[in-house]
Design goal:
single chain; mainly alpha; 2 domains; 5 helices; about 0% strand
Length: about 160
């Protein structure tokens, strides 16, 4: 075997090794990219979409909080003996509770972070339960209604923390 025959084989072997190294590097890079993308968008939403959804639902929470607070703390214009005014104030409070829950559920974006979305759903359902039961005549002192009010207050506090 002459030296001339050895040189092309050596080039061929070196080319094969380089090709193998590049192939392994390409597969590793593709795997790393796939791994990174899967964890960044594990549920199909990126961090910007999640942040936007959080801002949106926290703003909706603020609107509902203000509306419920305003309408559940109104006093009848004619004073405590104003029966019609008292009924109007109570009706407004019930509407703000029920509609506030519906509003939150309608504004809940699928990209909302899971922990916040769960608390908002709980709070929205609590508001609707409180409003519906108040409409059915349950006073705030009723043990079941008092428990609903407590749950709503706890959910509101948790959401306030998550929206910071």
């Amino acid at each position: 075997m002459s030296t001339d025959d050895y040189e092309p084989r050596r080039r061929f072997n070196l080319l094969g090794v380089i090709t193998l190294i590049l192939s392994i590097a390409a597969v590793a890079l593709a795997g790393w990219t796939l791994y990174r993308v899967d964890f960044a968008k594990e549920d199909g939403y990126d961090s910007i979409q999640r942040a936007d959804a959080k801002v949106k639902i926290c703003a909706a929470m603020d609107v509902v909080r203000r509306g419920v607070s305003l309408n559940t703390n109104l006093a009848p214009a004619g004073g405590p003996n104003d029966v019609t005014g008292s009924q109007a104030v109570a009706a407004n409070a019930r509407v703000s509770l029920y509609d506030g829950g519906q509003y939150l559920l309608a504004r809940l974006d699928p990209a909302t972070p899971d922990d916040l979305a769960a608390k908002v759903r709980d709070f929205a359902n609590d508001l609707m339960d409180i409003g519906a039961n108040a409409t059915a005549g349950a006073p705030n002192e009723d043990p079941e209604q008092a428990a609903r009010l407590k749950e709503a207050d706890e959910a509101n506090t948790a959401i306030t923390e998550l929206c910071k």
